[in-house]
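Checklist before submission:
- one chain only
- standard amino acids only
- sequence pasted in full

Submission:
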Amino acid sequence: MAHDPVAGVAVDGLPGLGTVIVTGGASGLGAATVAAVAGAGGTPVVLDLKEPEGDVERELVDLADPRAAEAAVERVAERHGGLGAVVTAAAIDSPGRLEDTDAATWDRIVMVNLLGTAAVVRAALPHLERSTGRVVTVSSTLGHRALSDATAYCASKFGVVGFTRSLAVETAGRVGVSMLVPGGMRTSFFDGRDPQYKPAGDAMLNPPEHVAATIVFALRQPPGVELREIVVTPAVEPSWPP
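Returned file contents:
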């Protein structure tokens, strides 16, 4: 990341983070990323439909609405004079067989997880090019492995994989692009599901703050160095390798 007023330089000589948009920053991995960015000296800004906890800047926006998501990014960039990075941690799911899943629910999963990701990155790109900033997208082990009763989620996360890999080629040398592939995490992501779609009570799940630390590690690589893809799973993750 360039050493400019948006990103800056941290005391240890590594690039500073500057202003970092975090989608889905009100809960789960997104909230953990907000805390990690702030702890590393960056300025996190949450894009979420829900209010985040604590004194953190936020834009309340429905990420299923691409134009609203783009407008939120522009407002953040204008307030801060640019952007240092974007982390697209927002994701939703509602497991079930395709024929049993309401069409609007299926569509919304893809819209939030994939179209929301693309919209936020698209709006941020001009600002990130000026700062030689970075993008970290969040896919899933189910972006590499197909699973029954997860057509919408797999479609969206497979899409994030393709989007990110293409973006990395398209912006090489101008914007840093990394993709995080997390396995199961101990978050509220599984709340409200039918028991058959919940991890077992003794399942090994990673604390989200441990996974968030890898995002900050990717963001703080020296100029010219990129972590293209990062897989972080519990030691007994059943979805990896695919």
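Reviewer check: The two ends are 32 Å apart (CA to CA).
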